[in-house]
Design a protein that fits this description.
ATP binds at residues 10-17. Helix 1 crosses helix 5. This protein has 5 helices and 9 strands. The protein has one domain (5-38, 81-175): P-loop containing nucleotide triphosphate hydrolases (Rossmann fold). By secondary structure, it is an alpha/beta fold. The chain is globular, with a radius of gyration of 15 Å.
């Protein structure tokens, strides 16, 4: 059964972003316009320094959180609210206007500190866009729950046991075997 929104969740480090980005690349390879953003770790050697947001279309990057800096803290990281607010809304607006599939990785505690992030990402729910969304596993925030419970969506938990073939399955959930 095709879905409009595939929401991925799972424990930290299990491969949610890897699955989401791989599914987006599969859909892009089928000729679909895919746009959005994803997050990734920033490491200095073996030490995780923080996280950055990456524009799926242009490759542009913005610091999401870092162990040094200013901004609200979550754990040992300072969240770059200004960077989130300047980066994500622009990408989401562009994707909603131009893309057939929107990639949104991740809706989590750091990102949700930004009011502009919340407003932009919530527009996905009211649009007709198909989307691959990654939510933090706690899912206690009302916006996260809106994606998880969306009537045109499905929640998929990424695990070590299912992650290897999951990107193809996510692509099929959104568009079947052909766009």
């Amino acid at each position: 059964m095709q879905r409009r929104i595939v929401t991925l969740t799972g424990r930290p480090g299990v491969g949610k972003t890897t699955v989401a980005v791989a599914a987006a690349k599969i859909l892009r390879s089928k000729g679909l316009v895919v746009d959005g953003f994803y997050s990734r770790e920033v490491r200095e050697g073996v030490v995780r320094r923080g996280f950055e947001l990456v524009d799926f279309t242009t490759g542009a990057r913005e610091i999401l959180a870092d162990i040094v800096g200013q901004g609200p803290r979550i754990g040992k990281y300072h969240v770059n609210i200004k960077g989130i607010e300047e980066f994500v809304p622009r990408i989401v607006e562009r994707a909603l206007a131009e893309a057939q599939v929107l990639l949104c990785d991740e809706i989590g505690p750091m990102e949700l500190l930004s009011p502009s992030f919340r407003r932009s990402v919530s527009r996905i729910l009211d649009s007709s866009a198909r989307a691959i969304v990654v939510v933090h596993r706690s899912m206690e925030d009302p916006l996260m729950k809106s994606f998880v419970r969306h009537p045109e969506g499905v929640l998929v938990e990424v695990t070590e046991n299912n992650r290897d073939g999951l990107a193809d399955e996510v692509a099929r959930m959104l568009y079947g075997n052909t766009p």
